[in-house]
Amino acid sequence: MDKKWISIVVIVFIAMILIGEVLTYSSGVNRYDSDAVRNGASVNYSISSSGTNDYRAVLMDNGGFKGLERLAIYVDENYEKNLDAARNLTPIGYMEAAYYADQMQRSLKLRSFDNTVICDSKGLIEFLEETKANPKGCGILSISYALPGEIYTGSAMDPLMVWIGNGGSLYWADSVPGSLYYNNGELTFVNNSQELFFGANCINLNGGLHPDTVEKDYTKALCLADHQLFLGADSSAIVREHLSMGCMNGNIAAVTLVRYGEGMVVQTAGSFRIEQIEDLSQILASGICYKSTIIDQYEGRVTRSTINGSFESISGDRLYLCIGSIYPVYGRAFDV
Fold first, then answer.
1. Angle CA 61–65–69, to nearest 5
2. Cβ of 42: how many Cβ atoms within 10 Å?
3. 31-63+292-336 CATH fold
4. Does an H or E element contain 38, and which?
5. Where are the domains of the chain?
6. CA-to-CA distance for 124 and 115, rounded, in angstroms?
7. CB 265, CB 241: distance < 8 Å
8. Coil, strand, or helix at residue 261?
9. b/e for 214-239, b at 16 or more Cβ within 10 A?
């Protein structure tokens, strides 16, 4: 074949590959958007999709509790190194902490929440110091079994507990909250951590317990799907104001939100699963709290268009719009 024709064939072949790449990366990518505003006694919203998707609109009343605006995801830099020693002291649902943190950050971004930082012990201490003057709207997600001794030693007067009490939100996965801290680099066990965080000994340590029912209202509203109960909280033992949701067995729930002063502690059951990440992302992004009540909700389908809707209610201060079901592909919360 003539060299000229060889060059032409090569150019055409490369062009076909490039066109194929463009088609591959653009045709399968949907675009989503939403908006919401209160107009007197009604809350008006719109939700858009370039594809075909189920969607859900949930109007909640959080009683003035400020929705999450900033989040620090704490990953102990010594997680793997001290894991065996930690397991000798307290039950732990193992996870690849760094990977979990990365997936949480990505999952939250899908839900229009990107004000997150992944931090080690030093970063966590700095975050607490930076936000201690006004921790309302600030959250810490701990996916590590031990806290830095500089902010926590098992006392209600510790900087972390004061921070929560003044309005901060602590979200916990992987172990019993506050059961371990570092004392000069050594793991130290706290006997009364459950009483400190929840006001009662309430964490389920039976790894063989399986759900036999589901809390319907909040679970449906947020499309919660995880079915683990190990390390879940037993609400019957908790005297503080609280809210339980997700799968359950008796009063033990996959997710429990508990009041602590002006803030709250949120316990999620189980160890690493994609459903746990999805559920926790829904809880974080929606801004739900221990005293949230659902005013109204609506399910529908949007197909390559913008859907407009409204709730007729003078109540409600938080609206969460979500596209997708078990694995949402988009979400956004609005203060209304």
1. 110
2. 13
3. Immunoglobulin-like (2.60.40)
4. strand 32-39
5. 31-63+292-336, 67-290
6. 15
7. no
8. coil
9. bbeebbbbbbbbbbbbbbbbbbeebe
Residue pair 284/113 in contact by the 8 Å Cβ criterion: yes
Structure tokens at 15: 């062009």
Residue type, 285: A
Beta bridge partners of 47: 34, 307
Tokens of 207: 């790894």
Which CATH class name applies to 67-290?
alpha beta
One pLDDT digit (tens) per residue for the chain, 336 residues: 444 443 433 343 333 333 333 322 233 478 999 999 999 999 999 999 999 999 999 999 999 999 999 999 999 999 999 999 999 999 998 778 889 999 999 999 999 999 999 999 999 999 999 999 999 999 999 989 999 999 999 999 999 999 999 999 999 998 999 999 999 999 999 999 999 999 999 999 998 889 999 999 999 999 998 888 999 999 999 999 999 999 999 999 999 999 999 999 999 998 777 888 999 999 999 999 999 999 999 999 999 999 999 999 988 889 999 998 778 899 999 999
Q: Which residues of 67-106 are buried (b: 16+ CB within 10 A; e: fewer)?
A: bbebbbbbbbebbeebeeebeebbbbbebebeebbebbbe
